[in-house]
Amino acid sequence: MKQRILVTGGTGYIGSHTVVELQNSGYEVVIVDNLSNSRADVVDHIEQISGIRPAFEKVDCLDFEGMDAVFAKYPGIKGIIHFAASKAVGESVQKPLMYYRNNLVSLINLLELMPKHGVEGIIFSSSCTVYGQPDHLPVTEAAPIKKAESPYGNTKQINEEIIRDTVASGSPIHAILLRYFNPIGAHPTALIGELPNGVPQNLIPYLTQTAMGIREKLSVFGDDYNTPDGSCIRDYIYVVDLAKAHVIAMDRILNGKQKDKVEVFNIGTGRGLSVLELINAFEAATGVKLNYQIVGRRAGDIEQVWADPSYANNELGWKADTSIEETLRSAWKWQLHLREEGIM
Ligand code: NAD
Ligand code: WQD
User: What is the pLDDT of residues 308-342, one digit of tens each?
Assistant: First the structure.
């Protein structure tokens, strides 16, 4: 019998790609999403890709009774992948309480409901933002957690602690914290991808919208950093590679392969790319010329960070192996799809 998994935030960017990979691997998926940052038709697109329609419940993770009812309606849920969260760094500075409420209470509700419904494990979407500017690169999971730069980043740190404390208190659950680096790109079918709300704050959606002519110019935030070309360095990981890491992590929990009841993995490529290198790679991969200018630094930006993913590579047997060119082509194909559909 197929094992049943609850995916919160499953119509969102990373969630939708993960639902496809879970289904491809034989899991049965129940999605919960309040559609605050995604569209209901993502469920149709997941079905088009995988041939299987996931169950979908429009429920807010803040609604304890609503979530309780979801577990009752779909008995036997074995694991949860918890993506549902608010994620805009700048907005979190303006609306800290909204961020703390949404991101913390959603998780607390799940952790309270898991034992009641016999759910064994949870995978939590954490972030490389917990490392701040690491002292050593590439950064390993053993690196110290730095004071968060934003309420959003702080919710990731606090949520990691909430999970650790809950397990330490004797709760029967198991957890894996995945610290994502910078997820980019879209499914090769271009049926699902990232749907930025308003003017994008992140590099890739701004870049592809500029290439499309929706934005006039991409601003490169700073070329005076202490990096080879002066622009910031990140570890850009293909969203489908990232999605696959969740399936392997879920297998690991459900097959009792964990070394500790709470484990943490860096999910990145191990390759740092500068903003200027990324622009060059996009132009080379797509043949599309990009209009950009160098401007001043963006407040709060980390100079450089990239993952040491060797623990995930060795322990999970997982590796991000999609080239940056293929990844950027998928991002461009998604932007073209949004135009064709009249969405953007
Ligand atoms: P996303 O906004 O596309 O997806 C999140 C989904 O959760 C959305 O569909 C939204 O409608 C839903 N949601 C939000 N609050 C909810 C609630 N209270 N109840 C039910 N549904 C709710 O974001 P994403 O990029 O797919 O990110 C997924 C997770 O990964 C988030 O936890 C995010 O913080 C984390 N993360 C993202 C990145 C990134 O760069 N995209 C990096 C590191 C970590
Ligand atoms: C990447 C690089 C910018 C836009 C954020 C969150 C982080 C994580 C991922 C969830 C940086 C530069 C960007 C632009 C630019 N999310 N840039 N022009 O800042 O690494 O991380 O998203 O956990 O928490 O902080 O990602 O895509 O915004 O920026 O030059 O218009 O691109 O300076 O060097 P970031 P990003």
Answer: 999 999 999 999 999 999 999 999 999 999 999 99
157 pocket-lining for ligand 2 (C-beta < 6 Å): no
Residue 1: what pLDDT?
67
Query: How is the chain split into domains, by residue range?
Result: 4-185+236-267, 203-234+270-340
Tokens 């590439």, residue located: 138
CB 17 within 8 A of CB 83: no
Active-site position among 13, 74, 99, 152: 152
Which class does domain 203-234+270-340 fall in? Answer: alpha beta
**Radius of gyration, alpha carbons of the chain:** 19
pTM above 0.85, yes or no: yes
Our answer on whether the CB atom of 87 is closer than 6 Å to any ligand 1 atom is yes
Of all protein residues, the one whose alpha carbon is nearest to atom 25 of ligand 2 is 89
In this predicted model, what pLDDT tens digit does every residue of 185-205 receive, in sequence order?
A: 999 999 999 998 899 999 999
Give the Cα separation of 21 and 250 in Å (integer): 12
292 catalytic, yes or no?
no
CATH 3.40.50.720, domain 4-185+236-267, yes or no:
yes
